[in-house]
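Supplementary Methods. Inverse-folding protocol.

Structures were first reduced to a discrete structure-token string of length 129. This string, shown here, constituted the complete conditioning input.
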């Protein structure tokens, strides 16, 4: 007698292309899961519930650890000073997760920076002139 099964996934970050199947006696079958990486750094826990035609219920816990992954983005790649404009605003953004710690090395005595170091979160940005 063949065994039929179906899988129920409660969490939208756990995906599979096969949610049910049938096995002949002594057969094996692989179920492929895909995990969507979530943005917020933390540990996520999901549940898969496998039900069989013999009324067995197997609960499988899936854990996903999302670590911090900061990435710097700045609005100015080059600054050309002219007589007409003396102040520029440089924006430093963290386009990924976690805290971005940054510093700017200024070896020029003619360039004044209001801020030379800081930390920027995912939704925060640092501005200085």
């Amino acid at each position: 007698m063949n065994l039929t099964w179906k899988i129920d996934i409660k969490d939208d970050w756990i995906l599979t292309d096969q949610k049910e199947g049938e096995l002949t006696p002594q057969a094996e079958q692989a179920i492929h899961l895909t995990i969507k990486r979530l943005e917020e750094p933390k540990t996520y826990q999901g549940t898969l519930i496998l039900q069989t035609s013999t009324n067995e219920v197997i609960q499988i816990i899936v854990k996903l650890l999302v670590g911090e992954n900061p990435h710097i983005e700045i609005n100015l790649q080059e600054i050309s000073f002219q007589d007409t404009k003396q102040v520029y605003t440089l924006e430093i953004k963290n386009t990924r997760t976690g805290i971005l710690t940054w510093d700017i090395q200024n070896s020029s005595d003619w360039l004044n920076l209001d801020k030379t170091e800081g930390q920027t979160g995912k939704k925060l940005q640092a501005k200085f002139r």
